[in-house]
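hey so i finally got around to running the thing on that chain from the lab meeting. sorry it took forever, my laptop kept dying and i had to restart like 3 times. anyway pasting the input first so we r on the same page abt which one it is
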Amino acid sequence: MLKAIKRGFASDNNAGIHPEVLKAISKANTGHVIGYGDDVYTEEAICTIKEHFGQDIDVYFVFNGTGANVLGMKAVTESYNSIICAETAHINVDECGAPEKFTGCKLLPIPTENGKISVEQIKYHMHGFDFEHHSQPKVISITQSTELGTVYTLTEIMEITQFAHENNILVHMDGARLCNAVVSLHTNFKEISNDAGVDVLSFGLTKNGGMNAEAVIFFNKKLSDDFKYYRKQGMQLASKMRYMAVQFTALLRNELWLKNSRHANRMAQILAERVADIPQITITQKVEANGIFAIIPKEIISRLQERFFFYIWNEERSEVRWMTSFDTTEEDIDEFIKQLKSLLKK
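ok and heres what got predicted. didnt touch it at all, straight out
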C-alpha cells in the first residue's frame, strides 16, 4: 500500500490538485468532443482568460512551464538572437538547457542578489547591434514572482518594458507564480502584464491548485502568427485539451485562484514571522510571495528534512528554501517550528 507523504515545504508543485479543479475535470469527462482544442471547454477557458488579461490577445495551452517559456520565446526569436535574464531565472538554471537547445539563442544571465534585474543592469548587454560577430539581443525575460520569492513592482516592470521597446526588444514574463505576485501587489492580471507592456507571458496555474495548467499568452497578436506550428513541433499540443482547459475556467472563475494564492502567501508570512523569532536562523530575502529563503545551522538540515522535506538552495552558505502552498495549514507550520526548535536545542 502506498504511504501518503506528509505535507512539507519543498515546492508548491508538490501540492495536490484543488478539489474544485478535480470536479471540473470530472464534469468535462462526458461524451465526445473534438480534440486538439476545437471544443467548447477550451473556448470557454480562453474567454475566461481574456476577461482577466484583455480581449485582444492570443492564448495557447501547453503541458508545463518549461514548454511555455521555451515556445513563447521561440516564437519571437531567431537563432542568432540572445535572451537577457537574471542568473537565477528558471530558464537559466532549471530547464536543462532547453531554451538554448530549442530557440538556438544565447542566454545572457545577469547577476542578482534578489532575483530581479534592472534597466541599468540590462544596459550592459546592449551592444553589438547589427554586428554579425555578436548575438543580437531580442528578448528580456523576467520572472514574476521571482525564483527568490521577491516581486517586481509595477513601476519596475514598466521601466523594463519601456526601455525594451525603445530598443526594439521584447519582454517575456515567466508567470509560473503570477497569482502570488498579483496578491502581493494588490493588483490584477491585466495591470501586471498587458497594461505594463509585457509582450509574451508564460501563465501558470499548476502551482496554484492545477495540474498541467499552463498557457502562453501573446499580448501582441502579430507575434503569435506561427505559434501553432511551434507548439506542435515542440510536442506541447494536447489532444484531449478539454481537461487542461477546464482547469483555467475552474480556477479563474469565482476567484478560486485568488483564494489559493492569498492563502499560500499568508502561510509564508506566518512561517517567516515564526522563524524570525529564532536567533540561529537568518531570512535572506524579502518574503513577498510564497517562498522563504533562510540560512540555518547546517547540522540540522538533514534531520529536519526527514520530517518536513524541503530543498537546500545554497549548500555553501547553508541556505534553504521553504515554499508554502494553497493547502499548507497553520498546523503544518506549528509542527515544523516545533521540530525546528527541538533540533536547535540538541
